[in-house]
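Postdoc handover notes: sequence design on the structure in folder B. Input tokens:
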């Protein structure tokens, strides 16, 4: 009896992974039993073991032509040095080449073309076949696209001048990264990013609304450069396109043809959501996958609306222009289509790995870490880059029209502090100089135009409707500002860790409702938070009641509660929180100055030095008086307590306790 093992690739969609006792599924056990009972394999000892595949880096740079040449050379040596007959040598050659080809095909969608067993082996997926077919088509499409891209990359690389070696190195790395297939680390990173999306943005109407603002922040400003920045023509064209796409009306046959082609090419698809769903479904069951689909709907619908609207607005303008020239109808369509496609990518960006920073696109562990940390930073990065590139006008001269229009819409939608980096710079100013700049801005706006101008100027148009989305549109200074360097580096994952720690702290305090709130995904947390704030009032994570400027506890009204449950932060709560943060900045500044004065007084050696310190303390009190009790003044009592040189009684007692026997 022969004894052998047949390796079954546990990563193959037809096989999946392992036996139930080791985490294997029922379908996989059926596969094992079916093969074991097949008469064709009766003389074999059947075991299931992983078919270990080489890492993707092994194949990068490996030429199929060169590999075949090496095999041919080795076979020739077998014939001459080992006296292997030509028939056997040719059989060895064919088997080696076939095995190499299978290894190359197994890297991606080509695995479906590997020759299988002669009979059907049970164990393959039998349910959710639409998703199976979709994955199959996506896989083959990706493989064929890479084949086309490889030829295009080669042609582009040939055009790079020899005197630009750095550009050549960058372009070569980019091409290699784009043609590289996914490895285990890529899949882990993708799943982490996908789950972070579901946790923070899934089911969120707020996230969808913020996504909608991209039409104003990037779409209309860039369209205005094409149709005239000194009028509102861009606004008229873009709003009509958004209305027509949303309602499905007033779209001609040629425009529908353009939209269909945009969808078929993936340009007008919800690229970000499709990538998220594909990765999430790799780690969850079918039922959970359907829930993920539902939670993704608001963001998905808005992403497609944005891309279709941008494409339609630009296509209409360019097709009208091209039709008036000497182009044929087909030429006019293709020219307008290309312009519209470029416009979509210029304003709504390419949300795939092709648009990752070079340092985050590779397969090494450092690149994977950076790619994972890059979650939700993609729009910020692309937006700032687009503003930078917009400064170069069509005539090569400095042009500010796109940036000016874009920042104007940012202010209208999120207030003056939402101008990129401004809020963080003002925060640092308050800490350094002790001047409540943002509170003064709010006061000036209120005195000039009343509460309406105050809300509009500090939080934008949504604030007039009682909600605040300014935090989502603000762009902070990396490694600085209101957050910490860790916030910049770890991003959403640091936020998830903080929520987990807060949940555990709430459990320790036996505050189980608050613990559930912290641990829940954002769309559930919003509902729980709305209930708590409406019933018991607004409190800190440790239960301290938060009051308004009059000292009254804050409790959400009906409208505010509904907005909070939908994921929107009530404007009143955001305003009070912002004022409180400004107050703390001012208090920290004056506390630092006060501590410095106490230290100088302790270190003063002569009466003259002490008099100088006392004069500075008097100046401090004059400044503190303007804040009407917010900043405690320096008094003789506080100065005496701060400058006393007596032993610390509590520390002395602690030392005695540690010295005494138990």
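Designed sequence:
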């Amino acid at each position: 009896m022969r004894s052998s093992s047949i390796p079954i690739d546990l990563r193959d969609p037809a096989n999946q992974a392992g036996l139930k006792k080791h985490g294997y599924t029922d379908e996989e056990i059926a596969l094992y039993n079916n093969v074991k009972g097949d008469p064709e394999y009766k003389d074999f000892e059947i075991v299931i073991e992983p078919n270990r595949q080489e890492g993707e880096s092994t194949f990068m740079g490996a030429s199929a032509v060169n590999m075949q040449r090496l095999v041919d050379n080795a076979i020739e040596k077998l014939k001459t040095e080992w006296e292997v007959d030509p028939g056997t040598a040719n059989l060895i050659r064919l088997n080696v080449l076939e095995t190499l080809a299978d290894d190359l095909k197994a890297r991606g969608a080509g695995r479906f073309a590997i020759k299988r067993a002669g009979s059907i082996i049970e164990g393959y997926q039998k349910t959710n076949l639409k998703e199976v077919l979709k994955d199959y088509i996506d896989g083959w499409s990706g493989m064929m696209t890479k084949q086309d891209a490889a030829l295009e990359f080669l042609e582009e690389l040939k055009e790079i001048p020899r005197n630009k070696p750095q550009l050549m190195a960058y372009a070569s790395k980019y091409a290699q990264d784009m043609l590289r297939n996914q490895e285990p680390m890529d899949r882990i990173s993708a799943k982490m990013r996908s789950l972070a999306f579901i946790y923070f943005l899934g089911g969120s109407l707020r996230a969808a609304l913020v996504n909608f603002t991209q039409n104003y922040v990037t779409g209309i400003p860039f369209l205005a450069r094409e149709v005239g920045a000194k009028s509102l023509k861009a606004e008229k064209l873009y709003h009509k396109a958004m209305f027509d796409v949303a309602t499905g009306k007033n779209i001609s046959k040629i425009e529908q043809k353009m939209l269909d082609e945009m969808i078929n090419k993936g340009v007008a698809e919800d690229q970000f959501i499709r990538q998220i769903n594909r990765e999430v479904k790799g780690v969850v069951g079918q039922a959970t996958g359907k829930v993920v689909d539902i939670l993704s709907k608001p963001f998905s619908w808005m992403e497609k609306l944005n891309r279709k609207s941008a494409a339609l607005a630009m296509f209409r303008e360019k097709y009208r222009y091209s039709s008036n020239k000497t182009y044929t109808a087909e030429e006019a369509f293709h020219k307008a289509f290309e312009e519209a496609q470029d416009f979509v990518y210029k304003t709504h960006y390419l949300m795939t790995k092709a648009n990752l920073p070079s340092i985050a696109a590779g397969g090494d562990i450092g690149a994977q870490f950076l790619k994972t940390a890059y979650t939700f930073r993609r729009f910020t990065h692309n937006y700032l880059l687009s503003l930078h590139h917009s400064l170069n006008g069509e005539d090569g001269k400095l042009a500010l029209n796109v940036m000016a229009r874009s920042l104007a819409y940012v202010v209208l939608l999120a207030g003056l502090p939402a101008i990129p980096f401004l809020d963080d710079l003002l925060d640092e100013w308050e800490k350094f100089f002790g001047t409540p700049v943002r509170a003064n801005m709010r006061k000036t706006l209120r005195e000039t135009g009343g509460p309406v101008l105050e809300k509009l100027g500090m939080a934008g148009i949504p604030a007039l409707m009682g909600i605040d989305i300014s935090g989502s549109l603000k762009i902070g200074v990396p490694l600085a500002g209101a957050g910490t360097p860790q916030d910049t580096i770890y991003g959403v994952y640091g936020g998830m860790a903080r929520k987990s720690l807060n949940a555990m702290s709430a459990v320790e305090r036996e505050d189980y409702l608050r613990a559930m709130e912290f641990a829940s995904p954002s769309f559930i947390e919003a509902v729980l938070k709305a209930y708590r704030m409406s019933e018991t009032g607004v409190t800190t994570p440790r239960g301290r009641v938060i009051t308004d400027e009059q000292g009254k506890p804050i409790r959400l009204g009906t409208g505010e509660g509904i907005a909070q449950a939908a994921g929107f932060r009530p404007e009143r709560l955001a305003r009070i929180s912002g004022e409180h943060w400004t107050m703390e900045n001012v208090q920290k500044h004056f506390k630092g100055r006060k501590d410095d004065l106490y230290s100088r007084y302790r270190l003063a050696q002569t009466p003259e030095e002490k008099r100088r310190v006392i004069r500075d303390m008097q100046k401090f009190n004059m400044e503190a008086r303007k804040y009407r009790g917010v900043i405690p003044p320096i008094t003789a009592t506080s100065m005496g307590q701060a400058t006393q040189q007596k032993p610390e009684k509590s520390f002395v007692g602690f030392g005695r306790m540690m010295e005494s026997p138990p």
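Context for whoever picks this up: The first helix runs from residue 26 to 36. Don't rerun without checking with the PI first.
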